[in-house]
Amino acid sequence: MNSTDSAAISRTPAILTPPDPARLPAGVIEQMLIAGDEVNTCIRALERVGLNLVGEVLKGQGEFIELEHYPKDDVFDDETHGQYYYHAHRADHGEHGHFHTFLRAGGMPGDARPLDYPLASAPWPRGDEAIAHLAGISMDAWGRPIGLFAANRWVTGETWYPADNVIEMLPRFAIGHAWPSWPLNRWISAMLRLFRPHVEALILHRDVVINAWQQAHPQRDVFEDRELELTGYLPVSVDDWMAELRQVAS
Predict the structure, then answer these.
(1) 78-85 LR contacts (CB < 8 Å, sep 24+)
(2) With b meaning 16 or more CB within 10 Å and e meaning fewer, what string describes 178-206?
């Protein structure tokens, strides 16, 4: 990837090629189908009574204001150390807003180590405060997921871990309590399992983009460079992905 490629990504994130389910082991597909059933169960349970996932995270939160976190203090599981929030600050790809999902230090693998980055111009959360961004989930105006994305550090305020560390964190993400919504928490936990190949591809691509950007701008702190926001995007459809998985599994 050259500097021209990097410049393009800064304005319009690369839309990656979706994973090929035919390359996945049968056991992995089976687990993803189970997660997909959970995703659909949660969506349908809400839609049967005229509700949706975005409405669940916004209920009781007052006026919806761009860039604010919803709910106000984020959602955190003190057993798994998973965390998420919802907000909006762009209208890319027809989204209403998006969820950011994280894993905090207490839930990380013991061998996870933040990147040693001497050019850092802003403090990163460290020690017990360390936090890794796993994936963003774009939502449409009807409260359904339409895409997944990866982002630069300044967007998420995270501690930067190499891709292999973050991928190892993915199965540890779960929200096992009922606040602010039991179906919403079950759904977001299952989404990262259903679309794990997509998330892995985004994380690996994220590091490629970051490295290329740093090479093109060697004097800048790449992680604080406002010209580089999102590093990659993948449109998703729960129904379409489930159909592909079932076709391969049959």
Answers:
(1) 79/176, 80/107, 80/172, 80/173, 80/174, 80/175, 80/176, 81/105, 81/106, 81/107, 81/108, 81/172, 82/107, 82/172, 82/173, 82/174, 82/175, 82/189, 83/131, 84/175, 84/188
(2) eebbebbbbbbbbbbbbbbbbbbbbbbbb
Contact (CB, 8 A) for 19 and 218: no
d(CA 114, CA 92): 30
| Burial environment of residue 94 by CB neighbours within 10 A (0 to 12, 13 to 18, 19 or more) | exposed
Q: What is the pLDDT of residues 96-119, one digit of tens each?
A: 999 999 999 999 999 999 999 999
Question: What does DSSP say about strands 97-104 and 82-87: parallel, antiparallel, or unpaired?
Answer: antiparallel
Q: What are phi and psi of 147, to 5 degrees?
A: -170, 165
Cβ pair 187, 99 in contact under 8 A: no
The structure tokens listed for 75 are 């959602």
Range of weakest confidence among 55-64, 165-174, 235-244: 55-64
